[in-house]
Design goal:
Blueprint: H1 11-16, E1 24-27, E2 31-35, E3 43-49, H2 64-80, E4 88-91, E5 107-111
Antiparallel strand pairs: 1-2, 2-3, 3-5, 4-5
The structure holds adenosine monophosphate (AMP) and zinc ion.
The site of zinc ion has 6 residues, from helix 1.
């Protein structure tokens, strides 16, 4: 039996492998970004590492380069979508109680509307 949140059962690993279609907006050797299927803002992208890390809580020291690369992808995409000056919201939910529903680390990048604080 695969472990819960394992790579074998992972939706986003299947998206990386192109076994499940997605609208890819950025790809390199380390990261993939695609449109969220249920957008919560005019721009709503998901940025993921190509290696399977289930949650932010599971990041290890060896993942440091990969994870820091995701931040440079955020900036590249924010620039591409004209959000650098307009402003944008990034979200990482870690764990079910925080709202995480897909257990492959992902950064939500949202823009094109006003965001409020605190989030629900
Ligand atoms: P989270 O709730 O933080 O785990 O975010 C998971 C996100 O993945 C949600 O915003 C979903 O709308 C999105 N999502 C789920 N399935 C797909 C899919 N097949 N393609 C693109 N986005 C998806
Ligand atoms: Zn995965």
């Amino acid at each position: 039996m695969p472990k819960p949140h394992s790579e074998a059962e992972c939706l986003f690993c299947k998206i990386i492998q192109k076994k499940i279609p997605s609208k890819v907006v950025y790809e390199d050797e380390v990261a993939l970004a695609f449109e969220d299927i249920s957008p919560q803002a005019p721009t709503h992208l998901l940025i993921i590492p190509k290696i399977h890390i289930a949650r932010l809580a599971d990041i290890e020291q060896q993942d440091e380069v990969t994870v820091s690369h995701l931040f440079s992808v955020i900036r590249t995409l924010a620039k591409q979508y004209a959000l650098l000056e307009a402003g944008f919201r990034t979200v990482i939910n870690s764990g079910e109680s925080a709202g995480q529903t897909v257990f492959h680390l992902h950064i939500h990048l949202m823009g094109g509307r006003r965001f409020h604080w605190p989030p629900g």
